Amino acid sequence: MNNDLVKQTEFVSEIYNSLVLSHYIKHWGMPESRVVSKRQGFDERIAVYYFPCNKEKPIAHVATIGTSQQTGRNGKVGCEYIFVLPCDLGGADIESVYNYLLDISAHTVINIEDISTPRVMGESKLAPAAWKTKAILFDELRGEDENFSTIPYGDLFNTKFIWAVPIHESEYKSITENGIEFFDSLEQLSEISIVDVTRAPFC
Q1: CB within 8 A of 59, min separation 6: which ones?
Q2: What kind and span of H or E run contains 186?
Q3: pTM value surpassing 0.90
Q4: 6 pLDDT more than 60
Q5: Is the N or the C terminus of the chain less surrounded, counting Cβ atoms within 10 Å?
Q6: Predicted pLDDT of residue 190
């Protein structure tokens, strides 16, 4: 790759990163910290930001910037992943949460051909040890502002924001066998928040 093309790619990447970060800040406030990684399988850097709870927002967000711009099995991956978590991160330290979201991103880049939601991933030993929910449901974001899914100049960047929802292995099996609608009905009947990563299973 020649120097001009490298510079152009880096410039586009910086614009994208700035747009998405500004988008997150608009909806969640200022991040407390971040980590930047270029793992095996990534052709671009991925940043993960931590947006803690505040007076207006009684839940925490941990979100990627850069997963969308990776080259996967069918071209650009086209999505960013978001954890919505309790204020105490379910007893996990932020480094383990960062690493888990980066592992999920790497798995997507290397293995996933279709990012369409809903989809599920089975239990992983890479999940934070403090969490009881070690499988993942990938779903549309719920509970966010209706304008959240649209970023400025979105026509230049094909980005889908996906909620990575930690779930139990039994729930993963139920969704696989019975579909997402059955799981949703059980979740709606429960008084326990789905973002509680130490909750009992719905099924």
Answers
A1: 53, 84, 85, 86, 87, 195
A2: helix 180-189
A3: yes
A4: no
A5: N
A6: 95
Tokens of 134: 């070690």
CB-CB contact of 100 with 123 (8 Å): no
Question: Are 169 and 123 a contacting pair, CB within 8 Å?
Answer: yes
Tokens of 156: 């230049």
Instruction: Decide: 183 and 202 in contact? Cβ < 8 Å.
Output: yes
What's the confidence (pLDDT) of residue 127?
A: 98
Query: Measured between alpha carbons, how far is 9 from 184 in angstroms, rounded to an integer?
Result: 41
Q: 186 φ, ψ to 5°?
A: -70, -40
- Note the pLDDT tens digit of each residue in 46-96: 999 999 998 888 999 999 999 999 999 888 899 999 999 999 999 999 999
| pLDDT for residue 5 is more than 90 | no
Phi and psi for 16 in degrees, rounded to 5?
-60, -50
Contact (Cβ atoms closer than 8 angstroms) between residue 96 and residue 83: no
Contact in structure between 17 and 153 (CB atoms under 8 Å): no
Task: Round to whole Å and give the CA distance between 194 and 187.
Answer: 7
Which pairs with CB-CB distance under 8 Å and at least 24 residues apart come from 25-33?
27/144, 27/145, 27/148, 28/57, 28/61, 29/54, 29/56, 29/57, 33/94
